[in-house]
Amino acid sequence: MRSSTRTLPALPADAPQSPRSDWATLGRLLPYFWQYRWRVSIALGFLVAAKVANVGVPVLLKYLVDALSIKPGDAVAVLVVPAGLLLAYGALRLSTSLFTELRELIFAKATEGAARSISLQVFRHLHGLSLRFHLERQTGGMTRDIERGTRAVQSLISYTLYSILPTLIEVGLVLALLGTRFDAAFAWITLSALAGYIVFTIAVTEWRTKFRREMNELDSTSHTRAIDSLLNYETVKYFNNEDFEARRYDESLERLRRARLKSQSTLSLLNTGQQLIIALALVAMLWRATEGVVAGRLTLGDLVMINAFMIQLYIPLNFLGVIYREIKQALTDLDKMFGLLEKHREVDDAPGAAALEVREGAVRFEAVSFAYDPARPILHDVTIEIPAGRTVAVVGASGAGKSTLARLLYRFYDVGAGRITIDGQDIRGVTQSSLRRAIGIVPQDTVLFNDTVEYNIAYGRPGATHDEVVAAAASAHIHDFVAATPDGYRTMVGERGLKLSGGEKQRVAIARTLLKNPPILILDEATSALDSANERAIQAELKSVAQGRTALVIAHRLSTVVDAHAIVVLHQGRVVETGSHAELLARGGRYAEMWRLQHSGADAS
Fold first, then answer.
1. Whole-angstrom distance between the N-terminal and C-terminal Cα of the chain?
2. 8 A C-beta contact, residue 255 and residue 224
3. CA of 267: how far to CAs of 236, 256, 274, 378, in Å?
4. Average confidence (pLDDT) over 399-412
């Protein structure tokens, strides 16, 4: 009993999601560092040791200054005390640098490892997304998001572990010293200045984050436009639209320029306010210390130590606005990259899916209905049977749904109704990897990697020997062409194979599929870009290769499918005729009309 016709249900659109909180983003990041937890612990130990040594420097400097207040006649003190303090001072300075470098050395593996793991996971996930996502994506903007997200991992670690955390530890140590050695006023001045500085910095940075976000969005947009224009270089030239593209790009750059100026002006406001708070705090601290020295409560060494503490504290605080902004931006960029990991997988392996077992290779489309958009169905209740080892051709006008059959068989999309089986196994119940290993395709529009001819042919079976690549090229009638080029099989094909003609690209695709040697073949207009002589030669080769294999041939040119065991005629997504070439001609139906029109056109030319 045939299933009722129904269209593919509407998919949940990838609607813009509200950004997750910063803590949630950090929570997503932490598991990537869990495997490096011992390195993190050791690095934190070195961090604390470096800060203790750094705080010890002003303390030692105080004793050194006070030691210089000795009487001129005390020769032993003159020689021994300052010399020992100087050596200790140098040792502390060296320890600070040594512990800092050890911290960075220990933690570098964790940072780079986490960045690598996240990038690889995003890369794998993007390959696991459906064809629909990749048809709708904006390549330039997406690659920018991945690039910024990867950098964000290093930025977050750099700013938190190397800037924020050390500063917090140092502030705690300094406040403890000031509060125990001197009166509480020093600690309160320091705390008040820090609180004011942090509140001001966070408030202004939060306010200007929207300008930074706008700047990044415009940066991605301009990058996307530039990439899109360059990828369509020939089309731009065909229509003499270089100036038009330049104007579009310039409009994007102008919006980006205005956003950057706005961002810079708010940054200047932030920096000025920060410096004012720091200046007021320093004046208050030094006034209090100077008063203590005059009153005899403090020594000159105490004054020097307090001043050194303030310098050590406020130098990193000078960059707090930049650091906070960069951390916020890194979290935003990381959130965007994590957002890619949350993109809906339209086609996924069923839980516990088994590997496809190809025994004979019989393919069957059973009452299949499908729509890319629910409002516009493509296939209606299509039933096609391709017996094992047989060749079935599907013909019809453009838009009839021929190439959609190939996409459904490859499971780039799932059917909306009905099912597709291989040797009785519903392809939705097997793993996509095993399904695609069993199928080879020569697509109508061949796109090659920007690499050598050999690489592109060997892509059909990575690890194939050079001799096997040459044999496949010979079978596809491209060996002579490749051998005649100066670099032979090392010839670069250019971006998307643009250095090759359409026919040459098609023959590389055929060689690639022949090298894969699958039990099921899909030939989607496989010879559409070839001249008549090469078409006849390759048709003969493809016919030979198809012997013993199940082959689905999608064709517009009817002369290429006359030898198929069966021909299926699609019209507006429905099967209207099925039979051999002779049977369909004898019926005088749609196939016969298409044959007559194609041959009358050929005779007229």
1. 48
2. no
3. 40, 16, 11, 54
4. 86
Q: Which residue has the higher pLDDT, 502 or 424?
A: 424
Beta-ladder partners of 392 = 552, 566
pLDDT at 10: 37
Lookup result for tokens 């090659």: 448
Which SS3 state, helix, strand or coil, does residue 20 take? coil
Neighbours of 41 (CB within 10 A): 10
Return the pLDDT at 564. Answer: 87
> What does the pLDDT look like over 56-65, one tens digit per residue?
888 877 777 7
Residue 226's identity, in one-letter code, is A
In whole angstroms, give the CA distance from residue 390 to residue 564.
8
Domains of the chain: 28-341 (1.20.1560.10), 360-438+556-605 (3.40.50.300)
Kindly give, in sequence order, each residue whose CB lies less than 8 Å from that of residue 441, ignoring residues fewer than 6 positions away. Answer: 406, 410, 513, 521, 522, 523, 524
Cβ burial, residue 75 (10 Å; 0-12/13-18/19+):
exposed
Q: Are strands 363-370 and 417-422 parallel, antiparallel or unpaired?
A: antiparallel
Task: Please provide residue 406's backbone torsions phi and psi, each rounded to the nearest 5 degrees.
Answer: -65, -40
pLDDT tens by residue, 124-170 = 767 666 566 655 555 555 666 667 777 777 777 777 766 777 778 87
Report the C-alpha gap between 530 and 564 in whole angstroms.
20
Beta carbons of 166 and 354 less than 8 angstroms apart: no
φ, ψ at 305 (rounded to 5°): -65, -45
Residues 49 and 106: beta-carbon distance below 8 Å: no
Q: How far apart are CA 534 and CA 245, in angstroms?
A: 38
Residue 81: which residues within 8 A CB-CB, separation 6 or more?
67, 70
Strands in 363-370's sheet, in edge-to-edge order, are 379-386, 363-370, 417-422, 425-426
How far apart are alpha carbons 552 and 59 in whole angstroms? 83
Predicted TM-score (pTM) above 0.70: no
> Rounded to an integer, what distance in angstroms lies between the CA atom of residue 290 and that of residue 314?
19
Tokens (6 digits) for 139: 């390549």
Both tokens of 353, joined, read: 């899916």
570 touches 396 (CB < 8 A): yes
- What amino acid occupies position 185? A
Report d(CA 198, CA 510) in Å as an integer.
64
What does the alpha-carbon distance between residue 542 and residue 13 come to, in Å, rounded to a whole number?
Answer: 41
**What mean pLDDT comes out for the span 473-498?**
86
Q: Is 18 helix (H, G, I), strand (E, B) or coil?
A: coil
- From its phi and psi, is residue 15 left (phi > 0), alpha (psi between -120 and 50) or beta? beta
Instruction: Give the C-alpha separation, 605 to 600, whole Å.
Output: 9
Using one digit for the tens of pLDDT, what is the confidence trace for 189-235?
Answer: 888 888 888 888 888 877 877 777 788 788 877 888 888 888 787 77
Residue type, 260: R
- Report pLDDT for 180: 79
Q: Is 49 exposed, middle or buried (0-12, 13-18, 19+ CB in 10 A)?
A: middle
Cα–Cα distances in angstroms (integers) from residue 16 to residues 128, 209, 252, 343, in the given order: 20, 19, 22, 11
Supply the DSSP string of 298-315, one letter for each residue.
S-HHHHHHHHHHHHHHHH
Class of residue 317 by CB neighbours under 10 A (exposed 0-12, middle 13-18, buried 19+): buried
Average pLDDT, the chain: 79
Q: Which residue has the higher pLDDT, 541 or 437?
A: 437
Alpha helices in 299-381 (DSSP H): 300-318, 320-341
